[in-house]
Design a protein that fits this description.
The protein is α/β, with parallel strands linked by helices and 199 residues long. It is built from 7 helices and 10 strands.
Length: 199
Amino acid sequence: MLSQKLHILNIPELDNIIIEIKDYFNYEIQYYNEKKDLLNKIDKNEKFLQNSIILVNKKDFPSIKNKTNEKYIYCITKFPLKISNLIDQVNARLIQQKFLVQSNINIKEYILDVNSRILWNKNHQLKLTEREIDTIIFLHKENKPVKVDILQNKVWKYSNDLETHTVETHIYRLRKKIKETFNDDNFIKSKKDGYIINE
């Protein structure tokens, strides 16, 4: 599991507090006196802020906000500061980041937004049903042809008494929706040994 990181930019009052209580923190802590040092790290590595929060003062907030998404930033506007509130805010932002990462799945040239139930690329988006989302995720994870009876069991959670053409009809409709929206006939391929989403 990735360690959770706090990047503290130019907040000396906070530095002293955190030094005293760092043993109670569940974070790896990095201090920056110079804004340019932090901005250079953000520029050089797109994953640098993964699982991280930047604690920043009001003066530096606009320039940091221009460089990254606000979900990575917590602006401290005044002191004294309740440490329990700070920890709650940091944890809330880290949970939000985790939720957003888990909700978006890259498949081929598309992004599947699980929470919004939307498949999209840079040009179009398509609203999907929960069953269609489950089907795409299952096929994507398998990365090999999947027989209809496996989909019937694993995605539809039905036993063998469900007619296989019901599953085939759902997949046919899903493939048709994708073709109509994205003009892509190869997103889900039908092979003799089942359906597949090839990366």
